[in-house]
Design goal:
This is Regulatory protein YycI of two-component signal transduction system YycFG. It holds the Pfam family YycI. By secondary structure, this protein is α+β, with helices and mostly antiparallel strands. The protein folds into two domains: about 35-70 and about 170-245, Beta Barrel (Lipocalin); about 80-160, 2-Layer Sandwich (TATA-Binding Protein). Helix content is about 25%, strand content about 40%. The protein is built from four helices and 13 strands. The strands form two sheets. Strands 1, 2, 9, 10, 11, 12 and 13 form a seven-stranded mixed beta sheet that branches.
Length: about 250
């Protein structure tokens, strides 16, 4: 046999074998990745993954319920002296002075319908002249149900509010926090040297129908540097949504 020809055949065979082995390795890695995304992960596994990706978890871990309810909801109508925009947000202007945050909340309770359904969010109230309150559902924040109070010094200037009337539906299993962290870290949405400084389990309005009905779905929200990233807390596979919030 021509040695040159035999050598070429061996080289081609070797290349094909390497490609085959590489494909098998990639498939094994992908299967392992999917398994990690679905199996319950330990704190040690997550800490190693954080270290490998140069991400710091400085947030305290919130309570992890085994399940959470979905909600069906519709926009709540407010009195006629509140002006409504196309997105269903109501707005009203004020010229009311206040002495301190405690008095401000008393005034808001008097002037704003459904104010007692809301709770101040320090994570969203980062602007000096703006306080953001989130509607609470089953002790958890509803990130789309917001009450925004615009201030000028110690005076209320205007209020924007969107309120939902929820109806509870059966509970679903909640994705464990470590699994949500795994999906977050492997999503590519978090830069190296980032810090996760807060974590919340709350709700997002995910499905919209023509008759203005919404489905409120549990999500893990991660506060990272100057952005918020949400991970679906009920999705069953590692391919489900990891979304940067525009709030």
């Amino acid at each position: 046999m021509d040695w040159s020809r035999a050598k070429n055949i061996l080289i081609v065979a070797f290349i094909i074998l390497n490609l085959f082995l590489a494909a098998q390795l990639n498939q094994a890695i992908e299967q392992r990745s999917r398994s990690l995304g679905n199996d319950k992960l330990t704190n040690s596994e997550i800490n190693n993954l954080l270290k490998d990706n140069q991400i710091q978890l400085v947030a305290s871990r919130p309570d992890e319920p085994s399940s959470a309810h979905f909600y069906k909801a519709v926009h709540t109508s407010l009195p006629e002296d509140w002006k409504k925009d196309a997105q269903g947000v109501y707005q009203k202007t004020f010229q009311i002075p206040f002495k301190d945050p405690k008095e401000l909340d008393k005034l808001l309770q008097k002037e704003v319908p459904y104010f007692t359904d809301y709770q101040l969010s320090t994570h969203h109230s980062i602007e000096k002249n703006k306080r953001v309150y989130l509607q609470m559902l089953d002790g958890k924040p509803f990130f789309d149900g917001k009450l925004e109070v615009y201030l000028s010094g110690n005076q209320i200037q205007s209020v924007r509010i969107i309120h939902f009337k929820p109806t509870q539906t059966p509970a679903e299993k909640v994705v464990p926090l470590n699994n949500a962290l795994y999906r977050l870290i492997t999503s590519g949405e978090v830069d190296k040297n980032s810090k996760i400084h807060a974590i919340q389990l709350g709700y997002k309005a995910k499905v919209y129908y023509a008759n203005e009905d919404y489905i409120l779905v549990p999500h893990w929200r991660f506060y990272i540097n100057n952005q918020m990233i949400d991970v679906n807390a009920t999705a069953k596979t590692a391919d489900d949504n990891v979304e940067i919030s525009s709030d």
